[in-house]
Amino acid sequence: DDAARAAAHEPASAPYLACKGTSIIPASTWEGMKAMVDTWVDMTLEHTRIVRKVLWAMTHNDALEEHFQDCGFGLAVVLLVSLRAIDYDDGPHEARYYYNYLQTLLPRLEPYKEQAELAGWGFNTTDLVIYPSLLGMDPPHTCYGTQLRIFIYPLEEKVRGVLHCQHGQWGLEALIPHWLRQGSCATNDPQEADFFLVPWHTWCDRMVYRLNQTRREISKIYMDLMRRHEELLPYWSRNRGKDHIFIFSDQGLNFFPEWRGWGPPLGFF
Q1: 250: which DSSP letter?
Q2: Mean pLDDT computed over 66-89
Q3: CA dist 113 to 110, 126, 185, Å?
Q4: Beta carbons within 10 angstroms of residue 2's beta carbon
């Protein structure tokens, strides 16, 4: 009858949708996660770090499966949001672990997507398609067959969080060095390098750390890099920087107008 059919489509009747909460994660937290169903793709790092604390509460208590059974779709949203914070703060190795864990959950949730959408959990995972590449899980590529060799300076503090920093038009500052690192054109031998890439997720760090260019805060970082080039860019002197490449996106070049004072024209993407 009609009542029976209506009961069959009741969202809460499906597995992984009770979201009643536990002593660790209350029901109100799950309800709050619904607000991130559509926004998980492009949240601030500050907000992803807050959600990551929810994930930590579950992992710290060895209670992931318990919470998956209670609110599996909510846990999936927590993971979707948290991945960027994990990659930025703890690196791609840790992010790969949770990405792979998420991939084990999604097939279990798939049969109940219709009920989940009725319950407000209709998240879209299309953007995940690029995550294996960004996390270094794809096989190496051949750089389209080029014979060029590029040495990428290991400026670890300036290239954190590719998952977070790849968004928007300024994402190229993260995507280009990352793509090159995965290819045969990257070399760890400076003697065989044709070019030297100086990576920095400039615009992304500007947003994360609220750097103010009016106070020349970004320029100061570049100037410090250049003043310490013998330490940080030890191959600069080989050709007085002629073979060094910087990447600027959007208004990025405006953040380093002092480049003209460093000898010959530098290479820019």
Answers
A1: T
A2: 96
A3: 5, 15, 43
A4: 6
